[in-house]
């Protein structure tokens, strides 16, 4: 059955506003989608370059860029859908519920991931640094997304989760170019403190010792059987332990040669004959 002209006119009058309205929304949504997609690509590229300048691990920078890109594109699609009249409340609720469930299931892993990101961004230590954290001290072997690997002085491998590492105290022994070495030694009360000071300062005449601040010897305490002295010298960080071990040995030998005694705890036991 063919429609007459009047019916066609009435039908066009009824649908034309709807078509014009939705075609305008659809066109605007497509333009928004294209521009938004391009801006997200530019933004993620800029973030990747920024992370590269900060010398962030490539695997981590790639993961961060991908994560930001996915999140922004999902938000863009939801916005475009709402522009053409699609109800997005249910989608947002579903995404929120799924995100909450995943977050609760992977709470520990997400905390370690966030800790790894913080370590990569703020660089409290680098590979090769000697640090002390979480009751463990060692050289940083590698920094991964979820954990950091340390090697102890006796070559044991310790894996520390990044979550606890980033939230705890970290002592970095390698960050500064020089450190102060304290050589602590005790002399007996009968010895001359000035003579002992001269002997210790003579030991400090070593090319590894920095002259500013100058080496110094202090009386740090009066013990039960000894006067406690401390030779304090500044050295390069890499020379800290060699200087500490070397000077401790020299202090024992040189003080003994000078006739300055190094006491050790003694106990006198009196025996009485029972009647």
Walk me through what this model shows:
The protein is of the alpha+beta class and 275 residues long. 52% of the residues lie in helices and 19% in strands. The strands form two sheets. Strands 4-3-2-1-5 form a five-stranded antiparallel beta sheet. Strands 6-8-7 form a three-stranded antiparallel beta sheet, with helices on one face. A hairpin with a 5-residue loop joins strand 3 (147-151) and strand 4 (157-161). The model has no long low-confidence stretch (mean pLDDT 81).
What's the short version?
The chain is an alpha+beta fold and 275 residues long. Helices cover 52% and strands 19% of the residues.
Beta percentage is 15-25%
> How is the main sheet built?
5 strands, antiparallel
The order of strands across the largest sheet is: 4-3-2-1-5
Query: What is the straight-line distance between the termini?
Result: 141 Å
- Would you report the number of β strands? 8
Spans of at least 5 consecutive residues whose pLDDT stays below 50 are none
The helix/strand order is: HHHHEEEEHEEHEEH
Instruction: Describe the global form.
Output: elongated
Rg, alpha carbons: 36 Å
Mean pLDDT: 81
Q: How much helical structure, as a percent, in the residues?
A: 40-55%
| Structure class | alpha+beta
Q: List the total number of helices.
A: 7
């Amino acid at each position: 059955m063919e429609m007459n002209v009047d019916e066609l006119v009435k039908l066009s009058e009824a649908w034309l506003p709807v078509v014009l309205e939705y075609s305008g929304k659809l066109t605007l949504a497509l333009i928004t989608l294209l521009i938004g997609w391009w801006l997200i690509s530019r933004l993620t590229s800029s973030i990747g370059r920024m992370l590269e300048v900060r010398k962030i691990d490539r695997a981590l920078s790639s993961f961060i860029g991908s994560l930001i890109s996915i999140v922004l594109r999902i938000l863009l699609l939801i916005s475009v859908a709402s522009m053409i009249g699609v109800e997005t409340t249910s989608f947002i609720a579903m995404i929120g519920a799924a995100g909450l469930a995943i977050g609760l299931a992977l709470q520990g892993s997400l905390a370690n991931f966030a800790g790894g990101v913080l370590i990569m961004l703020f660089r409290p230590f680098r590979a090769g640094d000697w640090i002390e954290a979480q009751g463990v001290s060692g050289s940083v072997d590698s920094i991964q997304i979820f954990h950091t690997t340390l090697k102890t002085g006796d070559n044991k491998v310790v894996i520390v989760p990044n979550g606890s590492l980033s939230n705890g105290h970290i002592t970095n022994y390698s960050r500064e170019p020089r450190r102060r070495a304290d050589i602590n030694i005790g002399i007996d009360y009968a010895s001359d403190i000035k003579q002992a000071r001269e002997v210790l300062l003579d030991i400090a005449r070593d090319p590894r010792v920095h002259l500013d601040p100058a080496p110094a010897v202090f009386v740090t305490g009066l013990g039960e059987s000894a006067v406690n002295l401390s030779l304090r010298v500044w050295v390069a960080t890499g020379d800290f332990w060699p200087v500490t071990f070397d000077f401790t040995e020299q202090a024992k030998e040189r003080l003994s040669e000078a006739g300055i005694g190094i006491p050790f705890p003694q106990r006198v036991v009196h025996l009485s004959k029972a009647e």
